[in-house]
Amino acid sequence: MVPPLRDLLATARVVALPLATRFRGIDVREALLCEGPQGWTEFSPFPEYDDAEASSWLAAAIDFGWRTPPASLRDSIPVNATVPATAAGAVPGVLARYDGCRTAKVKTAAPGQTLADDIARVRAVREVLGPEGRVRIDANGGWNVDEAERAIHALAAFDLEYVEQPCAHVAELADVRRRVRHLGIPIAADESVRKADDPLAVARAGAADLLVIKAQPLGGLHRALTIVAQAGMPAVVSSALDTSVGLAMGVALAAALPQLDHDCGLGTASLFTADVTADPLTPRAGALPVTRVAPDPARLDALAVDDDRREWWLDRLARCHALLTH
């Protein structure tokens, strides 16, 4: 059931959260928050996404705010640190923001950077975490098959937990997985699941060892759980650079998964210098509690966007709502 648009607009607040380090090419993250019968929820597709893709994010916001959530199977979720495509020298400062995290996801294959930059960054992470820490890398589909094979061989010396989305397409993932199987490094699929018309294509093609799932892009908790069940593969829950309200949605998804073998990428509130609550969902002893988040009115006011950006988001909300109801 999709609630009337007026119900979404009644409590809608649009905020802009500043980032401590440039991430995903942005310095500020915008999001629309609103309150449903189940509590506060978030609609925050990135600005470049079209309405068709963004409507899945609205379906997720409605699912979390208006529908009874799935049962939680655990009361806390272990999480990883996230290291942007920053200079190696900045790595210790980034990791210091993640209390007690013993796993780090390192961004690689960033535009304008080289494999040497990736190697230096991953080496710096390994030095901070030590031999017992877990290091995973995320190329966001930035390599072709040959580049991915070369990079994975070069980075294998740092004892990688897995490689996330080395290439953009499912067939390429399958090829890379075949080429590096002898290294014993698993391949994870992210964009090939959340941005695909058919999120199960990865599983059918044998293109990955595990799925990286995100609640908002997949249309909400219930749909994401169905996808994982149908895929029959281990899953890691990650954030879409959400506010703490949106992170609570990801935490609820992780808490409901029957199997959770990996630390989740839900510690990204540590990337912000301000959040919508005085008690943001940042890692403590390497984990997040399973809880909902209600924003503080004063912080909503302090982080509010200007009138033009507010109207842009409200118009987008209305267009996506129309797609869900027609």
% residues in beta strands: 15-25%
Give the CATH architecture of the largest domain: Alpha-Beta Barrel
Question: Going by CATH, what is the homologous superfamily of the largest domain?
Answer: Enolase-like C-terminal domain
The portion of residues assigned to helices is: 25-40%
CATH domain fold name of the largest domain: TIM Barrel
Number of strands: 12
Approximate shape: globular
| String of helices and strands | HEEEHEEHEHEHEHEHHEHEHEHH
What is the overall pLDDT average? 96
Main sheet: which strands, in order across?
5-6-7-8-9-10-11
CATH top level of the largest domain?
Alpha Beta
Structural classification: alpha/beta
- Main sheet properties: 7 strands, parallel
Number of domains: 2
- As residue ranges, the low-confidence spans are none
Instruction: Provide a count of the helices.
Output: 12
First-residue to last-residue Cα separation: 12 Å
Gyration radius, in Å: 19 Å
